[in-house]
Each structure stands twice: as C-alpha cells, then as structure tokens.
Amino acid sequence: MIMDYGKRFAAMKDDAAERILLLDGAKGALIQTYGLSEADYRGARLANSPRDLKGNHDLLAITKPEILRQRVHF
Fold first, then answer.
1. What is the mean pLDDT of each run of 10 residues along the chain (74 residues)?
2. What is the DSSP letter of 29?
3. Are 55 and 41 in contact (CB under 8 A)?
4. Domain boundary assignment for the chain
5. Distance of CA 64 to the CA centre of its chain
6. What kind and span of H or E run contains 23?
7. How much is the pTM?
C-alpha cells in the first residue's frame, strides 16, 4: 500500500504509541550513489587527518552536509 508522507508519518506515530519501533533508513545506500572519494570525506577541516576517513558517513555532516539533507523518497 502506498501512502503519502503525511499519512505514513501519522501511521508511524500511532504505531509508536503502542510499541517500540526500530527504524532503518536508506541513507547509506543514497550516500553510496554519490561515489565519494577520500577527499570528499576529509574536506578542508580534516585534510590532515592521519587516518583513512572514506566510508565514515558521520563526517559528512561536516564536510558534505548537502548530501545528508537529501530526502529519500519511497
């Protein structure tokens, strides 16, 4: 069944009132479609980090926040 965003959110809130929900989004899959390089994860702020940072999606909040703002549509 396909519902619009508002109806899906309302249904989720109703479910959450009755039980514990575990939610897993598709953000990691979306991020992978960008084909980001090590430099994308580093940005200017982390350019001198001694560790490999590629794949650490949390860092994208600092280096590529526009990617994390993308909304996943079902």
1. 80 94 83 94 94 94 90 59
2. H
3. yes
4. 24-74
5. 11
6. none
7. 0.62
